[in-house]
Amino acid sequence: MGPARGLKKRRKIEKKPEENASASSEKERSFDWWDELSRKMNGLQSPSKGPDKFKSVFRISRKTFNYICSLVKEDMMAKPGSFTFSNGKPVSFEDQVAVALRRLSSGESLVIVGDLFGLHHSTVSQLTWRFVEAMEERGLHHLRWPSTEEEMMEIKSKFEKIQGLPNCCGVIETTHIMMCLPSSDPASKVWLDHEKNHSMVLQAIVDPEMRFRDIVTGWPGKIDDWLVFQSSNFYELCDKGERLNGKNFMLPEGSEIREYIIGDVGYPLLPYLIIPYEGKELHELRAEFNKRHSATRLVAHRALARLKEMWKIIQGVMWRPDKHKLPRIILVCCLLHNIVIDLEDDVQDEMPLSHDHDSGYRQRVCGSVDIKGVHLRDKLSLYLSGKSPQ
Questions:
Q1: Of 184, 262, 384, 389, which one is least surrounded by beta carbons within 10 A?
Q2: CA–CA distance, 264 with 357 (Å, rounded to integer)
Q3: Cα(first)–Cα(last) distance of the chain, in Å?
Q4: Residue-wise DSSP of 280-310
Q5: How many CB atoms lie within 10 A of CB 11?
Q6: Each residue's pLDDT tens digit, 345-365
Q7: Are the C-beta atoms of 289 and 164 separated by less than 8 Å?
Q8: What is the rounded distance in angstroms from the CA atom of residue 159 to the CA atom of residue 174?
Q9: Among the listed residues 234, 163, 184, the one whose alpha carbon sits nearest the alpha carbon of residue 205
């Protein structure tokens, strides 16, 4: 499954008076919608039309909310069925999106979210799933591998500015989505991982702006990182030479460095996947490489930590999740994560930069080494030390 590019900023065009009037009317209507919904919500004693109250409920700005609505409206409105609040009033389209986003962003139970909005918990479930299905259909362009040389050049340039790694195209990292499964569940042992938790893995390749460019999910948490990677479409494309096959970086002495991604020792050392040197007493040159490599990998740690912090439905321990639906929920949370970045939502600036996304999980070592990967890592290490032969 592959990722997305930031939305291009549209040039501002001077609007005609009637267009301005229409926009003003739409703005007034949307504020009225939020005011009315906030009055229905238990726990909001002093409803506010301001952005701070809205962000506190949905974890995104009004601009981002409106954009998400524009994405899913056609699909959600096309589905049959109508919904009502406990007071008998109909649930508007904006209400439906609001309920789904609250469920995903808060991680609260169906009952708690239902009580908050004045809805039955089964209605919350239906609305959330309608939203997930619509986002799967309409939001995938926000999660894709770069499609142009210019786009990839920008990514490589930004990675190089972090710690000097040239021609780097991404950072790969894995995290665990925790689940609560009773021992009586027939699938209990299947989902029990190495740390004795029930979990599902999410593998992500991240760009320098913490945007997900490729993800894999759905595998039990006990499956090692390198096996998840080797089962992925990304691995298959790289193996065929159809990915990470762009322009090489020319070194001063005339040799070249191909495109690659970086990861930790849980992955194999491959011609296009560079992991750190192993060992405690490393030569100064190798220790310096590891330091730069580790600092660059932080972008993926922070991306996954922010994903779980913003979309808390996948942060804690999910209560008896549907194992077929959970990967789709994880995907939609990744899409929403990218949309916040693509729309330059300032809500992300208000969040702490944590990098602890997989607390309690010890590093597992793959140990597989490809000689071409060894040569590439050594060339990178020499180049970063400034000792490349002239």
A1: 184
A2: 15
A3: 42
A4: SS--HHHHHHHHHHHHHHHHHHHHHHHHHHH
A5: 5
A6: 888 777 767 778 988 899 899
A7: no
A8: 19
A9: 234
Supply 13's token pair: 């065009």
**Tokens standing for 373?**
């990967």
Q: State the Cα–Cα distance between residues 384 and 127, nearest whole angstrom.
A: 52
The two tokens of residue 223 are: 């499956």
Identify the segments of the chain with pLDDT beneath 50: 1-28, 44-48, 389-390
**How much is the pLDDT for 66?**
95
Helices of type H across the chain: 17-40, 51-58, 62-78, 93-106, 110-117, 121-138, 149-163, 225-230, 233-239, 284-310, 326-342, 371-385
What is the reported pLDDT for 6?
39
Token pair belonging to 204: 């992500």
The predicted structure's pLDDT at residue 54: 83
Q: What digits encode the pLDDT tens for the residues 254-285?
A: 889 999 999 999 999 999 999 999 988 899 99
Show the tokens assigned to 275: 């992991």
Token digits of residue 369: 């080494």
Query: Which pLDDT score is estimated for 9?
Result: 37
DSSP 192-256: B-TTS-EEEEEEEEE-TTS-EEEEEEEEETTS-HHHHHHTSHHHHHHHTT-SS-SPPEEPTTS-E
Angle value at C-alpha 295, between 294 and 300, nearest 5 degrees: 85
Taking phi over 0 as left and psi of -120 to 50 as alpha, with beta for the rest, 352 belongs to beta
Closest CA relative to residue 210, chosen from 256, 168, 155, 260: 155
pLDDT at residue 129, as a whole number: 96
